[in-house]
């Protein structure tokens, strides 16, 4: 049997235990996203700050599919674009420009993901964006920001507008493009993406079936007030993410390499 590219590109790294733990968590996230159908060939990106190192974060090697990402082939770069771990892989400039700007200016944004799933891109491309038409959508009403499409995100000066349009929210819907989700942990961005994906899927299905029933603002407010009562301990999304890691572990544990 041929050696998978993910193992062929594994490297022996001299890094701290904290960085290795972060690498494994991020690698697992790439595999979970792929398992759920959220990958986009070799494109898109998820990044994670390196614990204890200002300005350093991990991101996927440009050219590998999410199913090929493992802990050792993630690329460690700084917010100026310098490779810090001797990786032979390049980094997608669109990923660096977007993620580096947020990592530089948003101190709580330890983890960031950007995807092109069909459902989220479709809703980003709709006039009015996400609407209060289902349970999951209620989580996000009044908590999403929008940014008009300017082409592929490779120009540093667009970062200023991305940050300004994000405002005090944690999700920036890039119109005609897809969402950027920022959070304090991998678990947080995972559960936010999972819930947003479900909200968008259900909105599209509802609108295809007929005229949706809009949920009143006062009911949305009650939902957002009470939704925290069903969260498990450990931080937002941790239990959810851990469950999906157990699932991918049963089929392929090479992300741990």
TrEMBL record:
<protein>
    <submittedName>
        <fullName>Class II aldolase/adducin family protein</fullName>
    </submittedName>
</protein>
<dbReference type="GO" id="GO:0005856">
    <property type="term" value="C:cytoskeleton"/>
</dbReference>
<dbReference type="InterPro" id="IPR036409">
    <property type="entry name" value="Aldolase_II/adducin_N_sf"/>
</dbReference>
<dbReference type="InterPro" id="IPR051017">
    <property type="entry name" value="Aldolase-II_Adducin_sf"/>
</dbReference>
<feature type="domain" description="Class II aldolase/adducin N-terminal">
    <location>
        <begin position="24"/>
        <end position="204"/>
    </location>
</feature>
<dbReference type="Pfam" id="PF00596">
    <property type="entry name" value="Aldolase_II"/>
</dbReference>
<comment type="similarity">
    <text>Belongs to the aldolase class II family.</text>
</comment>
<dbReference type="GO" id="GO:0051015">
    <property type="term" value="F:actin filament binding"/>
</dbReference>
<dbReference type="InterPro" id="IPR001303">
    <property type="entry name" value="Aldolase_II/adducin_N"/>
</dbReference>
């Amino acid at each position: 049997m041929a050696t998978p590219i993910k193992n062929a590109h594994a490297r022996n790294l001299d890094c701290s235990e904290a960085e290795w733990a972060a690498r494994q968590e991020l690698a697992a996230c790439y595999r979970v996203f792929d398992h759920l159908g959220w990958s986009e060939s070799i494109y898109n990106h998820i990044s994670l700050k390196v614990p204890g190192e200002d300005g350093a974060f991990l991101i996927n090697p440009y050219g590998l599919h999410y199913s090929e990402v493992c802990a050792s082939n993630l690329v460690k770069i700084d917010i100026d674009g310098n490779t810090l771990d001797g990786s032979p892989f390049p980094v997608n400039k669109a990923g660096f420009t977007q993620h580096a700007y947020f990592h530089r200016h948003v101190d709580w944004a330890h983890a960031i993901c950007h995807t092109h799933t069909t459902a989220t891109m479709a809703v980003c491309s709709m006039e009015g964006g996400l609407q209060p038409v289902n349970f999951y959508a209620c989580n996000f009403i009044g908590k999403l920001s929008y940014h008009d499409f300017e082409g592929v995100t490779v120009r540093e000066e667009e970062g200023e507008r991305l940050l300004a349009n994000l405002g005090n929210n944690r999700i920036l819907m890039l119109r005609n493009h897809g969402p950027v989700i920022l959070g304090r942990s991998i678990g947080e961005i995972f559960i936010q993406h999972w819930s947003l994906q479900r909200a968008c899927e259900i909105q599209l299905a509802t609108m295809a079936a007929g005229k949706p029933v809009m949920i009143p603002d006062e009911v949305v407010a009650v939902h957002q007030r009470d939704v925290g009562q069903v969260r498990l301990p450990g931080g937002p999304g941790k239990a959810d993410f851990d469950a999906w890691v157990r699932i991918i572990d049963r089929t392929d544990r090479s992300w741990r390499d």
